[in-house]
Give the backbone structure.
Amino acid sequence: MIDFLNLRQINDQHAGEIREAIERVLRSGWYILATECEGFESEFAQFCGAAHAVGVANGLDALSLSLRALDIGPGDEVIVPSNTFVATWLAVSHVGATPVPVEPLEHSFNIDPGRIEAAITPRTRAIIPVHLYGQPADLDPILEIARRRGLRVIEDAAQAHGARYRGRRIGAHGDAVCWSFYPGKNLGALGDGGAVTTDDPAIAARLRTLRNYGSKVKYHHEEIGFNSRLDEIQAAVLRVKLPALAAGNEHRAAIARAYGEGLRGAALALPAVPAHCDPVWHLYVVRHRQRDALQKRLAEAGVATVIHYPVSPHLQPAYAALGITRGSLPIAETLQEQVLSLPIGPTQSAQDTQGVIAAVTAAAASLAGSA
């Protein structure tokens, strides 16, 4: 069986260093907001080319706390992609604002900047572009709209650790950039974790207060805050794995190049990369009109695949109250029926990559023959 992603192999590469880092935390006697978190924040900010990084408990908190730090809340609207993981929408809902979906560009899966202006109303306060599957959204036109209309830009970079837009790493193009370190991410912890990077010292300072019960000084609480802190053990693990991120991303890119070459003649749609983007291939997502049948045949051939994501946020029961009916967002709805993620990861062997190519080519050809 070819694994979709083998987390055990990924972490085994660093097992000795991880054990040493955890022992260092145990010996320190400090387990929350101490030297490991501070060290990781400094190192991750430098990696991203940002002035500040603020560690939080997870990627969803990174988004929701960023919205709160920008005073976005009840009565406000936030533009979000229609094609994304539901956490992007949930963050908006958690602060009491309303998510307003905008359709993606089909070739990149990311939000279509050309559709954003029409979604802006007097209540719009921010735009959240998502760098989906590890490929940066087209930020220049989004940032131009935001500047012209007086809006904030909060980037959801949960899948884009190390990605570049026009040669510059994702990390501080917008007002705040939100990260997840869920174990399956390109930079993954051994549990949940997240961060926000920004060039704005006021945003960073507000985030540090919000994550820690609204407190700058212990037992003195300036506002209604939260308990959302990147713990010392996760920070220490991330410090071990951060130096290996670039090499892991390059390994993923090599797999993506092999897929692009080996599947060029297969009867399915391959992902496209705009010239201004350097993706990190968190996921390699293809499209097929008989996606479910393709996935079944690949499973029978011993290839594990995943659907990211089978139900668009506007069709989830959690968002039924928005009244967005089926058919209202046709691009997202088409994608949810056609997308399939192939195995890709920093420990995937060349033999497994060729095995995936052979299995996908055969499965797609057999489906084309039976159509």
